[in-house]
Amino acid sequence: MAKNIVVLTGSPRAGGNSDQMAEAFLRGARSAGHLVTKISTAELNVAGCVGCGGCYGDESHPCCHGDDFNAVAPVIERADVVVFAAPLYWSTFPAQIKRVIDNFYCFYAAKRPVEGKKAVLLSCGEDTAYNMFDGIQRAYELILPVLGWSNAGMVLVPGVGEIGDVEKTDGLKRCEALGRSL
Ligand SMILES: Cc1cc2nc3c(=O)[nH]c(=O)nc-3n(C[C@H](O)[C@H](O)[C@H](O)COP(=O)(O)O)c2cc1C
Fold first, then answer.
1. What is the pLDDT of residues 62-110, one digit of tens each?
2. 18 lines ligand 1 (CB under 6 A)
3. Most CB contacts within 10 A, which of 121, 122, 129, 165?
C-alpha cells in the first residue's frame, strides 16, 4: 500500500551530500509507488521552541510562533513515515533541522495522535571514526519512543566532506534501496 512519506532535509547546502542521500531515498520511494514530500528545513523560517506551552492554541497554530512550522506540523501529522536527512554538525543534527525537531514538542505537549509512524535517519559526515555517528544516532533513537515512532532504517555514510563525495560511496544506492523497501 502506498505510504505518505515526508523527508526533512537538514543541510543548508542544496545539492550537498545529505541532500543527494535524500533524493536517492525519494527516488526509491517513488519507484515503489509511495507519495513523497520533501521539506528543506534550512529554507524555513522557524524560531524554535521556547517551551511556552502554548502549543495548538488553535488548530492553525501548532506553535505559538506564527512561523513556517505551522505549515510543517500538519504534513508531519499526515505522514506514515518521517525521514531525517542531515549531515553531522558537531556530532549531531544541524540547528536548522533541530529547530523543527524541537517544535515536535507541540505534538507531545498537546497529546496529538502522532504515534505509530515509522522514521528513517540518513546522515553523513567528514570523519571516519568508528563512533562518529553515536551522537546523532542516539538522539534519533531517544526521540522516537517519546513520539511513539519506530525506526525503519538508517544509512550513515562516513568520510564525505566536499559536495559530491557521497557519489564515491555506496551510500546513495543504500538510500535508494531503503526508500524502495518501505
Ligand atoms: C558546522 C559544521 C560542523 C560539522 N561537524 C562535523 C562533525 O561533527 N563530524 C563530521 O564527521 N563532520 C562534520 N562536518 C562535516 C559535514 O558533516 C560534511 O561535510 C557533510 O558531508 C556535509 O553534508 P552536506 O553536503 O549535506 O551539507 C561539519 C560541517 C560543518 C559545516
1. 999 999 999 999 999 999 999 999 999 999 999 999 999 999 999 999 9
2. yes
3. 122
